Amino acid sequence: ATESAADSGATEIKVGTGNEALPYAYLDENGKYDGYDVAVVKAIDEKLTDYTFTFEGADFPTTLSNLESNKVQMAAFEYEVNADRQEKFVYGDAGYVVWDTYIVSDPDAGTVYQSFADLAGKKVYATTATNQAAMAETYLKENPGAFELVYGEYNNEQIVQAVTSGAVDATLAPKYQVDNWNRSFNENLAVGSEPVHNSDAYLLFNKETDPALIAAVNTALEELKADGTIKELSEKYLDGDYVPE
Amino acid sequence: MSFKFEVMFQSLKVASQYVGTTLFMAITALVIGVILGLGIALVRLYRIKGLSQFFQAVVTLLKGIPMVLIILALYLIASKQFDVWAKSMHWSLRFKDFNMVWIAVAALSLMATINSSEIFRGAFAAVKPGQFDAAKSIGLTNLQTIRRMLLPQAIPISLPMFSNLLIGLVKASSLASMVSVVDVFAAAKITAQQNYRFLEAYVAVAVIYWGISLVIEKIVQILEERMSRKLRRAIL
Amino acid sequence: MSSFFSWDLVWEFFPKILSALPVTLLIVGIATFVGLMLGNFIAFMRVEKIPIVSQIAAVFVSFIRGTPILVQLYIVYYGVPSLLQAIQIDVSSWNKIIFIYITYGLNTAAFQSETIRAAILSVPITQKEASIACGLTKSQMYLRVILPQVVRVALPAFGTTTVALLQDTSLAFTIGIVDVVGKARAIGAVTFHTLEGYVGAAVLFITLSIILERVFDLLEKRMNFTEAKKTSFQLPSLSLIKKVQKIGIQKIETN
Amino acid sequence: MMEVRNIQKRFGKQEVLKGINMEVAKGEVVTLLGPSGSGKTTFLRCLNFLERADEGSIVLGETETIVNKANAKEILAHQRQTAMVFQNFALFQNKTARENIVMPLLLTKNKTKQEAYELADVLLEQVGLSERQDFYPSQLSGGQQQRIGIARALALNPKVILFDEPTSALDPELVGQTLTLLRDIAETGATMVLVTHEMKFAYEVSDKIIFMENGQVVEQGTPKEVFEQTKEERTKAFLTRFTNQMAR
Amino acid sequence: MMEVRNIQKRFGKQEVLKGINMEVAKGEVVTLLGPSGSGKTTFLRCLNFLERADEGSIVLGETETIVNKANAKEILAHQRQTAMVFQNFALFQNKTARENIVMPLLLTKNKTKQEAYELADVLLEQVGLSERQDFYPSQLSGGQQQRIGIARALALNPKVILFDEPTSALDPELVGQTLTLLRDIAETGATMVLVTHEMKFAYEVSDKIIFMENGQVVEQGTPKEVFEQTKEERTKAFLTRFTNQMAR
Ligand SMILES: Nc1ncnc2c1ncn2[C@@H]1O[C@H](COP(=O)(O)OP(=O)(O)OP(=O)(O)O)[C@@H](O)[C@H]1O
Ligand SMILES: Nc1ncnc2c1ncn2[C@@H]1O[C@H](COP(=O)(O)OP(=O)(O)OP(=O)(O)O)[C@@H](O)[C@H]1O
Ligand SMILES: [Mg+2]
Ligand SMILES: [Mg+2]
């Protein structure tokens, strides 16, 4: 449904998403929500005449709390499957993006790392409370002391500076992000040839959300995947086809 | 909302190991801030020419610069320049091995200095002019006046404001995570990253911070009672 | 920092940053107002040691000062609506910025109450005694005598906290309200350049800090009470003469 | 008018008032004499509930207030019927001379602004400070502050006015004027309790003299009785200097 | 010993001192009399650089200090040679009675602790406050504070002591004692300038009397000259009450 649908009696659904998670969900220069996740939800909105979706931005944990307390009925914020969340929420049926994480380093200062095993004895930066930090921790749990994990809440500038200055040897990030860094700061950071981690992200619903809505969204997303719309969006926002099978 | 106490206690256990780091940053900054802030407030009280206006401007300026920017700038400058300086000074220390806590402490000290100087300035205004008369009439030097009369009378007044400041510093020290220092807050968040149970982590942080605050409050209260009892009926 | 920082970007971002200023100012304005009202009330209760209220106030202050504001926002944002729901009040239609106002208002009140309490304690006891001897009530005493004398002591610390609050409203951003710092962060998220946005914000804050200082300087001078008032209430002398006659006490002859 | 029964006051272990009784009739001027530290100021402060006595009661008009049981409301009512002039002046530092007089009138007597300002102007004139009306206390000389304090108390027109050394900062001329002023006030029916070290002043203005020492009343009576037919040795010793002076 | 030349002081537009000259010889007691607000306190404050006069100079011993040119060091040196007893006592609120006397001795006179405490004890004894030595000013009566102020000034043994109404808060007995005390001090060669409203005291203790009004010296001379052969009308009027009293 389009904006005018609001007048035609369509149910309004609040969708939780992010404020500053480029390229998935962020406020653009005009203060409008934009990004891949937002575009996917908008595409679904187009298909569903009975509903209009409005966005409610917050940070990652707050969006979960918003969903839990029913301040939003649905969330699109790169949520991966995890047992804890499965207990509290309802996941959408289909994943809409794959999350491929690579090891990032500065070839001028050292080497390009392919896997966690290559990082033995190195310093690796990860932002506190992110997927990347979680995956590094998981690896470290199985291989204690394999590398030194440096936590922090760096800005983009800091991460790039930390890697290029050798303050850390590497960091973890998806490819598009590295491209962005290189473009914004004239650097040439490199990634390994294979991702060290991948998973899919799903839409998330409150347990009390109307099953009819959930069903409608699921169908719409399947259709959009099938007709290639999602792939287009992926190419537009993520510079590549990151649509999971 | 569902709330898992086990998760919270787990966070609490991990995060409380970092109380030392948090306190170290807050208290070091407070000590530095109080010393420098006192200096600035005295310069302004005695209207030392030039310096007084200079500090007034500096304080106004620094007040307006966000802490985040200060930390960011310190980090970026240090990471770019430190190795160059270190080499030219023939130090063996490199930025890589540099303890980031000091960047946080530097930024927090700045905050503490600005706050302290203004707190002292207010407290000085509360000391009655008659007391300065008394000091002058017996020929105390300025330093003696400050030590024997001004500070003993101003400090009891300013204590509640300093407890505000110290508690504020404890909380602000969580900004240290911007430069890779793991403090109470960061530690709690790390425990939450596997299961995304942030609420429990935040509550754990709140419990620890509140505990620290209660101790600060208690100490300040005892000091306050002790120091200000004799001044309560002060006249003129 | 060449590639990290360029003045061109500062200028480019500045108008956008500026556009978020009203949000910040509104939050700070409301928080300061609530903070002063409630803060004064709390300070008064605690100085006067009013039973029960003063204990509650002490716990409130301790809690607010002692816990991260984020946690307080969670309590206000999630806890209060569900509590109100239990008594059949629906606040789901409220604009979410109201929760931000409440959170910052309470937070400011707790911190200011301590500053004000400190300042009240610095007023010589004779001032209180004079009020009592004139038969003023407690509230009259506070409003007319104590508070005007408190201003000079509390003002500097109050000024720092207020300017600091300008930078602190960014909590609003976590629930999607874009204030100045939030805007800087949002720009940073899109362009990968955070530094320039923050520099723009700093320019704004410094300007406000200077303005605030000018205002406070004036206030401080007015509250100095060592220079004779220039203007004063004047009455027609005719009524004065009448009154003299009415009162009937003879004027004392000098010499 | 006012009756004070068995007022006792302790600071820590030290007994400062050991049971003072006093009766003051309407329009009477009672003067407390006694050496430094004998408890005169403390006694006055107890009468006004600035200090809460540990024991005793105060009857003012028809109402008896038992000091250690009185609640805030009773105390306020009591305080509104009394006024005090302080040894250390205790003017409102944030108010000009004139405002010091006007403010209590507006707040406690429900006067209109006009009435309050008029009355203040009359009183300022009386104490000779019309010119200084817009000065803050910190800009006034000791004697000037003292006079504003007196004017403020008079403006309130209370049942009882308590004076603590009202002439200590005044020059002889003003002492004379104040004497006249107090007499005028007394004649309008106001009742006064005052502490002074000016014997001549006490002698001339009082209806009754109470000599205190060490928190106890040693001797009391009319000025004539106390000054000229002194009974107690202690009082005699204290008064020596004054009687010497009178004898000159 | 001390010579004061053409001291002028303005507060805003108001001229408070209009050029005062004064000479004080070693061991002399000079008393300033004058109505309230005539500038006596301001003058004393200028002598001690508590207030900086706009014009004039002060010669103390061999050194002349030009008031509007003096630097911090000269002022401090000057202040260390003078001491002052204040009308409002101005004791250090954060020090006990005894510490108020001891502290200046330790800090400005380089006394040993032992010496300072011994001297303080002697002086406390002299002013009759040995028992109250560990009380804070806020716990002392007006007269008690006044006496600590006097003791503090005496302890410093300065070239000149300035007294601002040293007896205003004292009872007649203490006035007598203080008189004796000041006389003793004067005999040890100390020089004093005092402001008082106690005419008898002034008459008895002074070597020279200066009568001020409106920031100007109206008349000066020995007590006999000023009190008994008064030249100026204004002075006569002012002294009326005292001479009346003497005549009784
Ligand atoms: N807050 C206090 N704590 C302890 N002792 C006190 C306190 N206030 C007064 N005193 C003591 O009580 C005694 C009586 O004091 P008060 O002020 O009543 O004396 P006074 O008769 O007015 O003397 P003066 O003529 O010197 O003013 C004094 O010895 C004083 O030291
Ligand atoms: N800071 C000030 N600002 C303006 N005027 C002042 C200030 N201080 C004093 N004055 C004025 O200067 C005049 C002289 O004051 P001063 O205190 O010297 O009088 P004094 O002779 O000591 O009187 P008293 O006998 O009442 O103590 C007074 O009229 C007073 O109002
Ligand atoms: Mg007294
Ligand atoms: Mg004077």
From TrEMBL, chain B:
<keyword id="KW-0812">Transmembrane</keyword>
<dbReference type="InterPro" id="IPR035906">
    <property type="entry name" value="MetI-like_sf"/>
</dbReference>
<feature type="transmembrane region" description="Helical">
    <location>
        <begin position="54"/>
        <end position="78"/>
    </location>
</feature>
<keyword id="KW-0472">Membrane</keyword>
<feature type="transmembrane region" description="Helical">
    <location>
        <begin position="98"/>
        <end position="114"/>
    </location>
</feature>
<dbReference type="GO" id="GO:0006865">
    <property type="term" value="P:amino acid transport"/>
</dbReference>
<feature type="transmembrane region" description="Helical">
    <location>
        <begin position="157"/>
        <end position="181"/>
    </location>
</feature>
<dbReference type="GO" id="GO:0005886">
    <property type="term" value="C:plasma membrane"/>
</dbReference>
<feature type="transmembrane region" description="Helical">
    <location>
        <begin position="201"/>
        <end position="223"/>
    </location>
</feature>
<keyword id="KW-1133">Transmembrane helix</keyword>
<protein>
    <recommendedName>
        <fullName>ABC transmembrane type-1 domain-containing protein</fullName>
    </recommendedName>
</protein>
<dbReference type="InterPro" id="IPR043429">
    <property type="entry name" value="ArtM/GltK/GlnP/TcyL/YhdX-like"/>
</dbReference>
<feature type="domain" description="ABC transmembrane type-1">
    <location>
        <begin position="19"/>
        <end position="220"/>
    </location>
</feature>
<dbReference type="InterPro" id="IPR000515">
    <property type="entry name" value="MetI-like"/>
</dbReference>
<keyword id="KW-0813">Transport</keyword>
From TrEMBL, chain C:
<dbReference type="InterPro" id="IPR010065">
    <property type="entry name" value="AA_ABC_transptr_permease_3TM"/>
</dbReference>
<keyword id="KW-1003">Cell membrane</keyword>
<dbReference type="InterPro" id="IPR043429">
    <property type="entry name" value="ArtM/GltK/GlnP/TcyL/YhdX-like"/>
</dbReference>
<keyword id="KW-1133">Transmembrane helix</keyword>
<dbReference type="GO" id="GO:0043190">
    <property type="term" value="C:ATP-binding cassette (ABC) transporter complex"/>
</dbReference>
<keyword id="KW-0029">Amino-acid transport</keyword>
<dbReference type="GO" id="GO:0022857">
    <property type="term" value="F:transmembrane transporter activity"/>
</dbReference>
<dbReference type="InterPro" id="IPR035906">
    <property type="entry name" value="MetI-like_sf"/>
</dbReference>
<dbReference type="InterPro" id="IPR000515">
    <property type="entry name" value="MetI-like"/>
</dbReference>
<feature type="transmembrane region" description="Helical">
    <location>
        <begin position="20"/>
        <end position="44"/>
    </location>
</feature>
<keyword id="KW-0472">Membrane</keyword>
<feature type="transmembrane region" description="Helical">
    <location>
        <begin position="56"/>
        <end position="77"/>
    </location>
</feature>
<protein>
    <submittedName>
        <fullName>Amino acid abc transporter permease protein 3-tm domain</fullName>
    </submittedName>
</protein>
<dbReference type="GO" id="GO:0006865">
    <property type="term" value="P:amino acid transport"/>
</dbReference>
<keyword id="KW-0813">Transport</keyword>
UniProtKB/TrEMBL annotation, chains D, E:
<dbReference type="GO" id="GO:0015424">
    <property type="term" value="F:ABC-type amino acid transporter activity"/>
</dbReference>
<dbReference type="InterPro" id="IPR017871">
    <property type="entry name" value="ABC_transporter-like_CS"/>
</dbReference>
<keyword id="KW-0547">Nucleotide-binding</keyword>
<dbReference type="InterPro" id="IPR027417">
    <property type="entry name" value="P-loop_NTPase"/>
</dbReference>
<keyword id="KW-0067">ATP-binding</keyword>
<dbReference type="InterPro" id="IPR030679">
    <property type="entry name" value="ABC_ATPase_HisP-typ"/>
</dbReference>
<feature type="domain" description="ABC transporter">
    <location>
        <begin position="2"/>
        <end position="239"/>
    </location>
</feature>
<dbReference type="InterPro" id="IPR050086">
    <property type="entry name" value="MetN_ABC_transporter-like"/>
</dbReference>
<dbReference type="GO" id="GO:0005886">
    <property type="term" value="C:plasma membrane"/>
</dbReference>
<keyword id="KW-0813">Transport</keyword>
<dbReference type="InterPro" id="IPR003439">
    <property type="entry name" value="ABC_transporter-like_ATP-bd"/>
</dbReference>
<dbReference type="GO" id="GO:0016887">
    <property type="term" value="F:ATP hydrolysis activity"/>
</dbReference>
<dbReference type="GO" id="GO:0005524">
    <property type="term" value="F:ATP binding"/>
</dbReference>
<dbReference type="InterPro" id="IPR003593">
    <property type="entry name" value="AAA+_ATPase"/>
</dbReference>
<dbReference type="Pfam" id="PF00005">
    <property type="entry name" value="ABC_tran"/>
</dbReference>
